[in-house]
Amino acid sequence: MYIALRWTTAVVLLAGSLASPITQAHGDVTPQAVDVSTLKPLGDKLLEENPYRGDKEAIRVGASAYTQNCARCHGLEAISGGMSPDLRTMDSDKDNDKIFLEATLHGRARNGAVYMPPFQGVMSQEAVWAIRAYTESRPKEEQASSGNALDTLAKKSRCNSCHAVDVRGVSPAYRDIAKKYAKDKNAPGKLLAKLKKGAQGAWGKMPMPPVDSVTDEDLKALIQWILAGAN
Ligand code: HEC
Ligand code: HEC
Question: Of 46, 121, 145, 226, most Cβ neighbours within 10 A?
Fold first, then answer.
């Protein structure tokens, strides 16, 4: 399929072609080994919670490991350019620790398309937790948030790690999406189908990975909320 092919191309670009302007803009492509010799060793069994939270030395090691391995997609100093989730939005708790470790070791792929490469084999769990300690230590920006049920759902569904209500990164702001579809009666149905398949090209070159962990009911509610201005 045409669209599927275009995604694949974009994803190859994302996942590390040397010629890609993204990787050039953000530096190194080859995964860089991380020196964890100054950190408390953790053994082979994967932990469920970040043992280094708040540890100054881990934050220092994590900052450098992050800059070399993650910044080109997740943004310099963990300030997301919007093409990949803003890791600062992941709360400091066990659930998010688990997601962080798994996503980093295994990467993220759906239907054969790689949105993020796996770091297993390149990085020890010490390195991953050090990076987590670093991203947790970064100040979060205040974003417009009404704190209502739908805003909370958008956060829980991990939409807000790429999107903001009124700030456009590489991902469109909810209010710009609302403006664009203000006169389109068919928008809710179209957008639902799009989100489930993944989207690209309507706002820019950055693809949005298919949303596969949110129920249709929640997605419909989120789309309605976005189209109404995300208040
Ligand atoms: C080639 C680009 C790329 C690189 C390099 C990359 N990521 Fe990602 N990462 C992504 C994309 C895109 C997603 C979202 C994919 C999705 O939604 O399935 C993601 C998702 C994640 C998530 C899950 C976030 C969530 O809210 O579910 C974590 C955690 C993460 N990345 C950590 C890292 C760390 C740590 C590094 C460096 C060691 C890294 N990533 C390097 C592109 C990248
Ligand atoms: C990994 C980053 C990322 C995540 C996570 C993400 N989005 Fe997106 N989203 C994007 C990008 C990039 C675009 C622009 C795609 C394009 O140009 O077609 C987009 C586009 C959209 C659009 C507009 C589509 C169009 O065709 O105009 C809507 C609506 C949307 N996202 C809603 C959501 C919702 C709801 C969630 C959570 C369930 C979500 N997004 C999660 C990055 C993301």
Answer: 226
CATH homologous superfamily, domain 10-137: Cytochrome c-like domain (1.10.760.10)
- Is residue 132 in contact with ligand 1, taking CB distance under 6 Å? no
Tokens describing residue 13 = 């670009």
Q: Determine the distance separating the centroid of ligand 2 and the alpha carbon of 46, expressed in angstroms.
A: 32
Domains 10-137 and 149-227 in one fold? yes
Q: Mind listing the pLDDT tens digit for each residue in 51-67?
A: 999 999 999 999 999 99
* Least confident span in 95-99, 110-114, 127-131, 210-214: 110-114
What is the number of the ligand 2 atom nearest to the C-alpha of 203?
A: 17
CATH topology of domain 149-227: Cytochrome Bc1 Complex; Chain D, domain 2 (1.10.760)
Show me where the domains of the chain are located. 10-137, 149-227
pLDDT tens-digit map of 128-154: 999 999 999 988 766 556 668 888 888
Listed in sequence order, the DSSP H helices in the chain are 2-14, 21-26, 56-69, 71-74, 94-106, 125-137, 149-156, 174-180, 187-197, 216-227
pLDDT at 17 exceeding the cut of 60: no
Instruction: Judge if the beta carbon of residue 201 lies within 6 A of ligand 2.
Output: yes
Compute the distance from residue 195 Cα to the ligand 2 centre, in Å.
7
Whole-Å CA distances, 66 to 73, 104, 166, 207, 223: 10, 11, 27, 22, 33
| Dist. CA 214 → ligand 1 center (Å) | 18
Q: Is 99 in the pocket of ligand 1 (CB under 6 A)?
A: yes
